[in-house]
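During the reporting period the student researcher (J.K.) took over the structure-prediction task from the postdoctoral fellow and processed the backlog of single-chain submissions. One of the processed entries is reproduced below for the supervisory committee.
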Amino acid sequence: MVHDNSMQGQVALVTGGSGGIGSAVCHRLAAAGAHVVVIDIQKEKALELVESLPGENHMAVEVSITDSDALKLLAEKLADHYGNADLLVNNAGVTTPVAHDDLDGLTDEWIDRIFQINWRGSFACVRAFKELLQVGEGGTIVNISSIAGTTGIGSNVAYCASKAAIDSMTRSLGRALAPKIRVVSVAPGWVLGEYAKRFDPAYLQQQVDLTPVGRLATPEDVAETIWAIATTLTLMTGNIVPVDGGRPLL
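J.K. obtained the following structure tokens:
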């Protein structure tokens, strides 16, 4: 883990922070000196994560991003404690594998859940924390998307559509919230995280073989990209940044 002072004293909010990608993001931002707020529905995992982070003044909060009223109350709490926010990472999301030609297998319940969490939840967080991100010189929002939003190839049709919607939101809000808040999507391909563990190693090797750089992304690759957007790629807004090893090239 790289330790630096590039985000010293800044406040970073990470939804779904206790998951595979989320925890890597939290560790990278904390290593850069940020105070990290882990927003998750799994309170115990979030607390364990906070205790493992370098630095100080971190916080674990049990809140569902589908509860707009709870997010508003959290924003007030964070305003009292920190005064502002410098970075929001909309990382929380859900999916389930359903073949794209299995239209009956993709139930209304799963469609609603995917859009409620992946898109509406991300938008609700932006709405709740906008004022915190506008304090001072302003802040950055990073939405975790997927190349599935562009390729239409992913765990199910609704998941692909939800990620396309996130990218559309990134473009819209990149324009609407400028110049105080920058908004960027990070779009991984296959990531060797918790979801990938559900698949046979032989299948994952096939995905490696279909990736020009010869490896799949790790949660740390995604975290490093988010750190770069927050600290060095500061002229970027409304952009969709792939972390896919060139996968769409084949």
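The committee noted the following: The chain has a mean pLDDT of 96.
J.K. will present the remaining backlog at the next meeting.
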